[in-house]
């Protein structure tokens, strides 16, 4: 009897240790800076597999009404070069977090910067049935692509 219990405990431990937690996050990642690095590092610290979506130029133009400084093909390559990103994919549907996204990536956690806090409440309701949690990580207030753009403008 004791052996059977210990075998069960070992198997439960073994399978829990081998369970992979998958996180999904996305962004523009224009003019890659320390704020981008901070969120990717923190996100990777929460999971075994970090999937990062990089917004295409068309998506950025549509929701921010501006074109990124760095073209999509270069931005996605930069993010692929970051050791915290395990999988890097084009993100063609900004703010479309739904069952399709879950079916595609099977993530356990959806991650966003806390500058978007509350924006995903509807998404949380949709993804709750899959057990997906939404986590807001601290936004690096000292640096952003917008601030870099402003600094460059001031130096002209």
From TrEMBL:
Molecular functions per Gene Ontology: nucleotidyltransferase activity
Domain Cytidyltransferase-like span(s) in chain numbering: 24-151
Signal peptide: 1-19
Pfam families membership: CTP_transf_like
TM regions (residue ranges): none
Keywords for the protein's UniProt record, in alphabetical order: Nucleotidyltransferase, Signal, Transferase
SUPFAM superfamilies assigned to the protein according to its UniProt record, in alphabetical order: Nucleotidylyl transferase
Listed NCBIfam families: cyt_tran_rel (TIGR00125)
Listed PANTHER family: FAD SYNTHASE
Stated name of the protein: Glycerol-3-phosphate cytidylyltransferase
